[in-house]
Amino acid sequence: MKKILSPKSIILLCLAICFIVTTNIHWGKNKWRNIIEADAKGYYAYLPAVFIYQDLNFTFYDSIEKKKYYDNFLVYDYRATAPNGQRIDKYYCGTAVAQLPFFLAAHALTHITGNDADGFSRFYLLAITLAALFYLFIGLLFINKLLALYGVNEKARSISIVAILFGSNLFFYSVCEMGMSHVYSFAFVAMFCFYVKKYFLQYQSKDLFISMALLGMIFLIRPVNVLIVLAIPFFAGSISELISGFYSLKRNIKALVSGVIAMLLLVGIQSLIYKISTGQFWVYSYGEEGFNFADPHFMDILFSYKKGLFLYTPVYLGSLAGMYFMYKKNKFQAAAFFFFLVIITYVLSSWWNWWYGGSFSSRVYVEFIPLFSIALGFLLQSVQQKIAKLSINVVLVLLIVLCQLQTYQYRYYMIHWENMTKEKYWDVFLKFDKKAQ
In whole angstroms, what is the distance from residue 436 CA to residue 405 CA? Predict the structure, then answer.
């Protein structure tokens, strides 16, 4: 039983399940044609732009994507117009950088098999499903390592991993819309959290360097996710440790400088792309879209029928019960955790489109799941009474079932991708019949 419940075994089992699901959804017949849609097209487009067309103004969108794959791709132009009139990709290139090894393997295989090496034929898109599973594996692996640093036992870690994968929208963005940036961000944020926590435990220069480099990738994938730096006080665990950590930077100045250089080099990839495509080192590609910090939708992003995080994926809310035990053990740590959640919710809910378009639940929290997993780990580790443990496990199973049902409903448009209301939600609640929509 111990081996079955070991975190590493659980991760491999989870990965096998996700592989079966994603291949069933995307690998049969012509289903692969819809692997990248909407925003995912923009994230991926850098790869064919650089390695096939040498065209960072993305004119191949009209000649290749739209003309050749028009009937099978969601009609969505991911390009924006720079101030000088040049066309650029609206999205950042970090997801493409993460997908690069898989793209190159697919490109080689496409040539070997004599298929169309246009960047959008079968092997290229299938490679994205494998890339997503790889980064899911990395993220879960580092969540396990992170929880171990907090002293969470193996059984609690195993349960936490299952709950946060199958009970949250991480599952959906790993096997259904794996072209979106979230599973990639999730992996790099999980690694960042682990190495920052490890640094505060040992003050080793390599952990500092790796943390800085990871922060560069986090920015490159999705800039707003650098908010993870606000969790540093939480990982420090106390004011004294936080101060000691900053003083230790003097002893690790070489690692700090090297880390900053690595971070800037990674961020510089986007600047280099802009320079080549527009002649400018930086362009704001989102036009009039932006944050309105005077009008946050704090409660909407968490509880609304439209996209409420806690409504559609309540395991996030359930995990926060662990804050009680966190508070009992370390008041500073609990306060830092709460502060982090409040700030990221304020910022994320201030985006002009606070529901973030077509998405299952509030997708922008997927990358911050490592923090929620820590809270859940505290909960599972701290409760000792058998009845209480059984009750928590039963609740987690119910939350997983609910999430999986709602994921199914979302896939089949019973839950609308954007326009949900209270009436629509309760009309399809717990229904499997696709006709219920």
Answer: 13
For the chain, 437 residues long, the average pLDDT of each consecutive 10-residue run is 73 97 91 88 96 93 70 71 91 97 97 92 95 98 98 95 97 96 98 98 95 97 97 96 93 94 97 94 91 96 96 96 94 97 97 94 97 96 91 96 96 91 94 66
State how far the Cα of 46 lies from the Cα of 139, in Å rounded to an integer. 24
Taking the chain, what is the end-to-end CA distance rounded to the nearest angstrom?
Answer: 42
Six token digits for residue 398: 């119910």
| Buried b or exposed e, range 370-395, using 16+ CB within 10 angstroms | bbbbbbbbbbbbbbeeeeeeeebeee
Q: Give helix 122-149 / helix 7-26 axis angle, nearest 10°.
A: 160
* Count of other CB atoms within 10 angstroms of residue 135: 24
Report in angstroms the alpha-carbon separations of 365 from 70, 97, 289, 344: 32, 21, 20, 9
Tokens representing 43 are 């994230």
Sole residue written with tokens 């309540």: 314
Q: Taking the model in full, what pTM does it have? A: 0.95
Exposure string for 409-433, b = 16+ CB within 10 A, e = fewer: bbbeebbbeeebeeebbeebeeeee
* Ramachandran category for residue 91: left, alpha or beta (phi over 0 → left; psi -120 to 50 → alpha): beta
Q: In whole angstroms, what is the distance from residue 365 CA to residue 188 CA?
A: 14
Other residues' Cβ atoms within 10 Å of the Cβ of residue 183: 28
CA distance 2 to 374: 22
